[in-house]
Amino acid sequence: MEDLKQELKEKIIAALKLADMTPSDIDNEAPLFGDGLGLDSIDALELMLLLEKNYGIRLQNPAEGKKVFVNIDTMAAYVAENRTR
Amino acid sequence: MKYSSYVRMTPSRVVLNEKMLTFEDSGKNLLLEIYRKAVGDWPKFFKMDPLSKVGFVSTELLLSTESPRVKDCEDRAVILFNRSGSLADDRIYEGTIRSREEFYPSPAVFVYTLPNILTGEIAIRNKYYGETSFSVLEKFDASVMLRTLEAAFVDPMTRSAVFGWVECGSEEEFDVCLFLVHREGEGMKELDEKEFERIWKI
Question: Rounded to two decimals, what is the model's pTM?
Fold first, then answer.
């Protein structure tokens, strides 16, 4: 699971172009939106795309993303459970 | 129309008010170098499309000449032009949907597939609430651009504008000629067609 969390951080940094940021800057429990990484609604759509492109997970309902994208821990748990590749 | 500053920028050269600025890099890396040295506090830069990056850093240089840097301008417009619109980003977006097997349209790329997004980026960064427009012309045409600028100043609210040409084929190919223009200003130079073309040829 730790490897998956590290991989997710790397993919998030690349996909959201979080320049000057490294995986170690992202805390597993820190919120991705709001005060955490300060992501916006377009970033949320990019995260959905990231899941589909890399893990074959298609979120049917954007509201579902709210539960999945709370932090790295919730995201990794969801990916581990639902990935098709 | 008067102007207080201008910036002329190509992938290998930056001139700010007759003074050549020295940078080590060129093209895409020049944009990054300018951001690091002259801006540095606007991480959204990294998410911008090529046109917005070019327009953003050149505007930052242009506005760095204001002292103090103006904030919350109700009376400042952003009036820009180019030839290629948002083609640089359009191409990147097309790359995300080209293949049926790899069909992943990127929302972050898609949002930049309009050139007037750049005027919004500038207005948001500087808290400008005046008119913004981005027109696509067949070619650089000082006469048409100045007429458009004059039309913007028909509104008595408009007292100054970020104005000019921001062409961008890619992060490696761009050509900028921007002015900070004013309705009136003591000691400022007149911006007419001849002066615009003189600076364009620098």
Answer: 0.92
